[in-house]
Amino acid sequence: MTRRAPLSGIRVLDLSRVLAGPWCTQNLADLGADVIKVERPKLGDDTRAWGPPYLKDENGEDTTEAAYYLSTNRNKRSIEIDLASPEGIKLVKELAKHCDILVENFKVGGLKQYGLDYESMKDEFPTLIYCSITGFGQTGPYAERPGYDFMIQGMGGLMSITGERDDLPGGGPQKAGVAVTDIITGMYASVAILAAIQERNHSGLGQHLDIALLDCHISMLANQNLNFMTSGQAPKRAGNAHQNVVPYQVFKTSDGFMIVAVGNDSQFRSYCTALGIPEYGTDPKYATNRARILNRSELIPSLEKIIATGERDAWIAKLEAVGVPCGPIQTIDQVFAHPQVIARDIWKNIPHPTGGTAPTTASPMHFSATPIQYKRSAPMLGEHTDEILKEILGKS
């Protein structure tokens, strides 16, 4: 029996752009949903212009397709619609009749002028699952303000716990190296949509999903939130060290850097034996994680001094042999050359209309019976306009 993709038969009207919304809808597209990406005529999604780098054509020349845009729009179809025109608004509503989900990331109230906000559409489309992604949500004093990943990383607390300690060289707030707030918001939105689909199977009704960057970002802080909520003390930057586990950080070797992630006291004893200091593993000052946290300032310099005398790969081999979690710090080119990454087939290539292929990072979702299919690279602007209008709306 041939089984269909998990979201086969589900259609998504995607009015989002940049990252959080498109990341959500790319997940849905990977799972088999038909995602129709609505874009502004001639300009399209903002990220189409966020380059270089750009995709190369079959002759090795730059196309107009920015790598940023390619990273978050595969498996979708693109249609150009002018929302500023009555005809464009009518087309969106016509398409909405044939869709299960609508995803948008306009500012709060931004679609009301077009009659495309949830309140304007809910009665006409009672089964539609309408997902709004905004900076601060639909309620509260900041609701109407725009929100961007970088500012939310600062406002939401992540930058207060990311970066080297203030009293050390290079100390100070630091953002993450990728737009983690947008990504996690896209993931939460995906989960919420899947839950709403399941609920609709019971009730037969759609609903409004209010997903905010700030909310998702704060939720993502996980144990750091609880460190504050249980102690009353706001966590501070600790560089590459862990707030709650010791030793769990970066160590400098004679030829590079490595990570050691000692998760329990048994691993710590194995770690000490491998370093040639087995007595540390039973010393009351270090034998338990609680003791190691209290005596961190004494313990870590001793460990750093020992690790600095050996080569990175030699240490990794030695620690792996005794079951201590550890690993190298790799550049992204080294990541894709790693045998585990190659074995997991994480680099994919998809045929592209400009000629040749477009690379994409494989979805981390693996299904035994209905694997993710990479049918389409990120679409060209308006690539499927005629196709969608004919197929779904029956227009000439």
UniProtKB/TrEMBL annotation:
InterPro entries: CoA-transferase_III_domain, CoA-Trfase_fam_III, CoA-Trfase_III_dom3_sf, CoA-Trfase_III_dom_1_sf. It comes from Zwartia hollandica. Keywords: Transferase. PANTHER family: SUCCINATE--HYDROXYMETHYLGLUTARATE COA-TRANSFERASE (PTHR48207:SF3). Pfam families: CoA_transf_3 (PF02515). One of its GO terms (molecular function) is CoA-transferase activity. The keyword Transferase applies. This is CoA transferase.
